[in-house]
Each structure stands twice: as C-alpha cells, then as structure tokens.
Amino acid sequence: DAAKKEGGLSISWTASVGGSYRPIIDDFEKAFGGIKVDLSSMNSGSLLVPKVLQEHAAGIYSYDLVFTSMRFGQNFIQNGALRPMRPLGIRPDVIEDGKWERGWEFGWVDKEKQYAYGFGMNVPLQWWMNTDLVKEGEIKSINDLLAPKFKGKIIFTDIRSGFTATQATALRLNLGEDFLKKLYQDQQPVYQRDNRLLTEAMVKGQYAIGTGVLVPVLEEFQKEGLGKNLKQFDIIEAASMNMAHQMFMLKGAPHPNATKLFINWLLTKEGQTSFAKATRENSRRNDVPDGDPVTKPKPGQKYLWLSGNLETTVLNDEVGRTADILAKLTG
C-alpha cells in the first residue's frame, strides 16, 4: 500500500542488453498494479556511477535502485551514496539458504554485507566466431587467436567493461602479462563500447572473432534470417565465474517503499524466473529454469572467480590491475 501511494520507481540497469530488462519490469508492474517503473540503461557502470555521484553532490536524487557490478559499485560505498538493503526485511521465503546456489549469504558482495546483492551466476561472456570467416576446428586453443589471419579481425568491448576486463584477467593470471600484449595489442583488435553495434558487426562479417555478443540482440537478427553464422566457443584459459547483476539501493531514494517491494519481488522464484527468461542469463536460485544452459557453470570445471563475494574473489585488485594494463597497451 505504501509503495502504491508513492506511485513510481526509478531504476537504472547496466550491462548493455538492449531492451531485454523491460519484460522484468512489465512482470513487476502486472503483479503490483499502480506502480509505474521508469527504467533507464547505460552501457557500463563507468558511465552510470559518476553520473549518480555528481547528481548526489548537487542534491539531485534521480534513481532508487541501480544494477551494475561491484567493481563500479564500490565507488558508491566509498562515497556514502547507498542505503543498506539488509534492514529492509527480505521475505522469509527468499532468504532460505537451500534456494540459492552457495546459500543466501553468498550473494552479499560488499565487505559489510549490507549494500550490494548479486543474484546471477554465469560462466560469462562466451567467445564468438563468425563461421563464414573461421573454419571448423581452426581454433583449438587460445594461441590460435594469435594467427596472422586474425590481426585486425577481432572485436572486444571497451577494456573497462566486464566483457573484456574479466576474461583478460583470467588470461593474465593463467598465461602471464606478456600474453595480454600479444592478443590485446599486437593483434590490433577493435574495441566497441556499444554491445548492440558489436553484435551487428559480427553478424555482418566485419570481424571473425569477438566477445560481448548479446544473445537477445542476436535473436533479433536471427528472426530476420541473419546471424546464424555466429557460433560460441570456449577458451579454457579464460574460464571464469561471474556473479552478475548486483543491485544497490541509493541513499535519498525518492520511492523507498516501492524500492523495497521491487527488491523483495525480484528475489522470489517468480522474479528470478522473469529475470532469467528476459536476459537469457542464469539465476543463483535453484528453483529457477536456466536462462542460458551454455553459460551455466559445469560440474567439475575449475573456474576463476572474477566477481562475487569479495572474500572469495580476485575482483577488487586483479580486474582493476588488468584494466590498467590494457589501458597502457591500447593507449
């Protein structure tokens, strides 16, 4: 009732999946009539976080809830821009350990276990090839990407985004810093911040290999008979685990009750089912169908934790260090 009196909710969700978050919002609005959600998106937390902090410094509070990675979200904590979510009173049927992979508590990704909660679990950002340009069996290991024929024919997302920095971190820790130079500099790849444009470029055959292709966007092309030339492949040396989609409630949220309602709903089976269906990503909830079986962690496979609970991950130090290295290599 209190949420309906507020009448609205403002959310910003990063990660560049086009319009695929909207169905989640639609399901929420259907479940709770009278609450209109204003949804905006940005390609990266590197754009969202400075915008929010600048607004807060000017006394402007535009958003209630934001979704980004802890790598960027930790700046909210450092600047005192967040309201703790743990005291909001999460539903008893949500916080049962058995309903979540690695338990409910594992989702708190900040050291205080108050401000940021992650509910996705994926083997992130699979590599893609254009089969018109890459022959079957031509890529058997990461070293095959260093072939002269692929120079200038590889496309990555912006080096600061998780699509590039996380995989590059796994490669650096497994193969050494010199390998980053060989792939991310010497092979003269192209960097693109807009994942929709990246996906389109791969479909059109402008590049042979890429990361950051978005399945929902690719499916739009496939409905038009295009994009069937793209195929995913694995790079063992880059195998990593990612707890995607971490949420942060902002201090000064203009719709605190609607925000509380949305958080509680999103973490239910119904909310997470909506999330997995819309984004084609996997929820940590054990009672939710896979959003994408391809990116679901495989039993027995060793993964490098690149985001998630900061006590069990190399996220804070290593991904940032990798991004700094890539920045120097690429200028």
Q: Termini, distance in Å?
A: 53 Å
Which structural category fits the helices and strands? alpha/beta
Unreliable stretches (pLDDT < 50, length at least 5) are 309-314
Helical region count?
11
How many β strands by DSSP? Answer: 12
Main beta sheet: 5 strands, mixed
Strand order of the largest sheet: 2-1-3-11-4
Shape: globular
Residue-averaged pLDDT, rounded?
Answer: 88
Radius of gyration: 20 Å
Percent strand equals 5-15%
Helix content: 25-40%
N-to-C order of helices and strands: HEHEHEHEEEHHEHEHEEEHHEH
Structure commentary:
The protein is of the alpha/beta class. The chain is 35% helix and 14% strand. It has 11 helices and 12 strands. The chain has helices spanning 2-6, 22-31, 45-57, 70-78, 162-175, 177-186, 195-203, 215-223, 256-266, 269-279, 315-330; strands at residues 8-14, 36-42, 65-68, 117-118, 127-130, 154-157, 190-192, 209-211, 230-233, 240-241, 246-249, 304-305. Helix 3 packs parallel to helix 4 (70-78) and helix 5 (162-175) crosses helix 6. The protein is globular. It starts with a helix and ends with a helix. Mean pLDDT is 88; it is low at 309-314.
